[in-house]
Amino acid sequence: MVVHSKLHSKLQIVMFPWLAFGHIIPFLNLSNELAKKGHKISFLLPKNAQIRLQNLNLYPNLITFHTLTIPRVNGLPEGAETTADVPGYLESLLATAMDELYDQIKSFLRNLKPHFVFFDFAHWIPDVALEIGGIKTLCYKIVCPAASAISLIRSPLEMTTFMASTAADLVKPPPGYPSTTVVLHEREAKLLSFLFREYGKGVTIYERLKKGMTLCDAIAMKTCREIDGTFGDYIATQFKKSVLYTGPVLPEPKKEPLEEHGLSNWLEKFEPGSVVFCGFGSQLFLEKKQFQELVLGLELTGLPFLLAVKPPEGTNSAEEALPEGFKKRVQEKGLILDCWVPQLKILSHKSVGCFVSHCGYGSMWESLALSDCQLVLLPSTSEQTLNARLMEQELKVGVEVEKDENGWFSKESLCKTVKCVMDKDSQVGCFVKENHRKLKEVLSSPGFMNNYIDNFIQNLYGLLVE
């Protein structure tokens, strides 16, 4: 029996994520796990991102950052390298700049000849690999599999067809979709319109994602079978290729004091498990009216709360958007920050008992695997909404805030949901708490994450000999 020589060598992998920290960091977390096992990673990213993320590279002897020179694109601000440098409406120009890296990436890959390239938004990577020859490509999905399944497994819709479709048609899951509950409601159909917006020159997000998943050698997913197995199997069948699971790939929480913004001192003033923490990630900008409903809803609960949120649309700071008299009323009991906060450290603090989450995929995993908080779900995009449905309807670990026909929540609906999970006598609260406890036990059990990485690496070797 001939044993393939590649199975004895350490893997050489190139990582090329979309130019957004919400994509780069999960790729880097996976790189750390692979480097821990001795594999070599070449990580392609712009200079400023390298500087910011240097401290997250835990194996600099095995993970090498390679600088991408972002091409000049008309209309893109000077020096813009990631989505953090541009407002949302200019992201399409950044996608154009990424696509213009084609020749830069091609010559890098031709010189290096790695075993694998991992990518997500650069749908042309499989073409480059095919042209060079001998390189396998992996489309690494860092969003929930349900979002890929419900959005991408349908006949290609042109924008005109999309606009003419009824809401019921748009949200109807594709044939064979494995869930009746992890779905969008009719009033949420408009959330899918982003798929058919141009994102880069002459390409929509839909085409970008669909092509990447269709042409790659295998699809990898930042999840585990226990939570997303039915969706992963469905995607494997529809795209006729292997779906590999990396596990949730979460960084180990550091046992460091919570020094930022005097948060530790502030949280220490309150009873264990009494504080409501509301965190909405770095990409969500609420309308002023919704922001006001949010803060008034938190006030209505009567519980101490910490809110970390971007300044609302059209304002320079969260403070200037507060309702009249609000600041004076909540004084010691409410803290509102419109800057970055160490979410994981906050969730791990003994005083924090409830997490009002926008249900981004990273936040979802942190709340499930690394915290004991009660979960209140307040999504705004289609992917976040599917994450919320997964957590409420299938895993039964949290409760979603009710919204009206326009997708707006009220201060009353937010308050009601927080109280529902936080009241000691609430049956619903006890039910979701127990389910969360059981799931966390599985996800944080010794060897759970490590086994996923070991199996993932074995699967990569398997792909090399196909």
TrEMBL record:
Enzyme Commission number: 2.4.1.-
Keyword Glycosyltransferase: yes
Protein family per UniProt: Belongs to the UDP-glycosyltransferase family.
This protein's name: Glycosyltransferase
InterPro entries membership: UDP-glycosyltransf_plant (IPR050481), UDP_glucos_trans (IPR002213), UDP_glycos_trans_CS (IPR035595)
UniProt keyword list: Glycosyltransferase, Transferase
Gene name linked to the record: UF3GT_3
Organism lineage string: Eukaryota, Viridiplantae, Streptophyta, Embryophyta, Tracheophyta
Domain of life: Eukaryota
Entry keyword Isomerase: no
Pfam families in the record: UDPGT
